[in-house]
Amino acid sequence: MRSPSCELAMIRTLDRVLWVGMLAAVFLAPWMFGAVEPWAVHGLTALLLVLLALWGIKAVLERAVRVHVTPIHGVLAGALLVAALQLVRAPRPTSEPLDRGAPLAVSAAASQDPSGTRQAMWRLAVLSGYFALAVELLRSTRRRAGAFVVLLLLGCSLAFVGVVQKLTASPRLLWVREVETVEIAFGPFVNRNHAAGFLEMLFPLPVAAILGGGVARERWGVCAISALIMGIAIALTGSRGGVLVLGVELLALPLLWAAMNARVRGSLRSGALMVGLMSAGIVAGVLWIGAEPVVSRWRMTEGVEATFANPLDRPMIWRATAAMIRDHFWWGVGLGAYPVAYTRYDRSAGVYRVEQAHNDYLQVMAELGVWGALLLMGLLLAIWRAMRRALMRAADSSAARFERALALGVTVALLGMGIHSAFDFNLQVTANALLFLLLVALLENLGARSAEHRFAKEMGV
């Protein structure tokens, strides 16, 4: 029979392994070319199953199952439930050709691509599993500090590799994999917009750590260099959306910090000064490396005119998606069925293949119907609630200052992704969605900790 001390040691070891495994998934996903291909999703699934098995063993040893349910759990479960209902009502496969002009003889609640829906459900279930683990494993300040360091290393390494690959004009992703459109690739991502989206969720963290005094002064240099590398990389991706969001984040950081410290005189001025210096450093770095690729993306001939001359321009896709939403208002076309459903609304005569709506909000409503809209509102309200709770934390200790600064960085990061999602599809990329959910889990835990702290203070504990 095992002694209590032996069981306690095993529980602690399993807890550390679970934490390392969860962070390893977030760290490795972007290096697997965004984890968008089946082999990458298989790998993440296998790791998740191992982690869940270890979590089960840990629960047996503890003789207790600890699960902290958040509103985000309900949103993810709701999306899976709607998709399951769409799949149940879907038609069986048929060998008869489909007349593009004829209406589909299927249930209004059915998925138009059952295979795509199954794959999307699998991916969403994997992401939900990692989110559930993150909520459980990031309950302590030390764990959240460790996650902050890992995310900083991830952002710096990915940005550095992307810039070096851009400067060397390598025709391969990570100098290994050949791609047809290497000019729009950046780092391990096939699409520069996805690289920018990933980095823009990490960039605010070190800036907020300095702004909020979340780290010691001797570590400000490390955070500043990390932020500069990521900011320069975002600009060099050539993603117009990424540069726009970078600017929004640089504006939001001092404004939100000043709102959090309304009683402290000069907080807005000091925050604006620090962010101004950071912006100047990013501009100087881009000019030093070479600003032509960035400037060319904003020229009239290569920017706006090229966008509207392209049959795949976003306004055309959005109009087609709006028509799709009107036609499938209640149940949508099916989770993951957007590419198949779009062929009935395509105005390019099938010459081009459109797989995403370039607007995550529209795509969710197109795929899940009115239920998707309700789930979106639930997600936004849940994140807003967690933000308010996390940002209200009093800075009465060094640990509290770190958590307050981390809450500021995560809030601005999620704000940036929320804006970028209005004209791109970053959250359709597994690596980006996984990082997004990790940040949400951090915010949920920071908010819960803040609420517990206020309750204890009110009770005089």
Structural class: mainly alpha
User: How would you spell out the order of helices and strands?
Assistant: HHHHHEEHHHHHHHHHHHH
The proportion of strand residues reads: under 5%
Number of helices: 17
In total, the number of strands is 2
| Major beta sheet, strand line-up | 1-2
Structural features, described:
It is a single chain. The chain is mainly α and 461 residues long. The chain has a domain at 149-312 and 348-458. It is 68% helix and 1% strand. It has 17 helices and 2 strands. It has helices at 4-28, 38-62, 71-88, 114-137, 141-168, 192-200, 204-211, 220-236, 240-260, 267-289, 292-296, 304-309, 314-327, 338-342, 360-391, 398-420, 430-458, and strands spanning 172-173, 177-178. A two-stranded antiparallel ribbon has the order 1-2. Strand 1 (172-173) and strand 2 (177-178) form a beta hairpin. Helix 3 (71-88) runs antiparallel to helix 15 and helix 9 runs antiparallel to helix 16 (398-420). The longest helix is centred in the C-terminal third of the chain and has 32 residues, at 360-391. The chain is globular.
Sequence-ordered SSE layout with sheet pairings:
Blueprint: H1 4-28, H2 38-62, H3 71-88, H4 114-137, H5 141-168, E1 172-173, E2 177-178, H6 192-200, H7 204-211, H8 220-236, H9 240-260, H10 267-289, H11 292-296, H12 304-309, H13 314-327, H14 338-342, H15 360-391, H16 398-420, H17 430-458
Antiparallel strand pairs: 1-2
Helix pairs in contact: 1-2, 1-4, 2-4, 3-4, 3-15, 4-17, 5-8, 5-16, 6-8, 6-9, 7-8, 7-9, 7-16, 8-10, 9-10, 9-16, 13-15, 15-17, 16-17
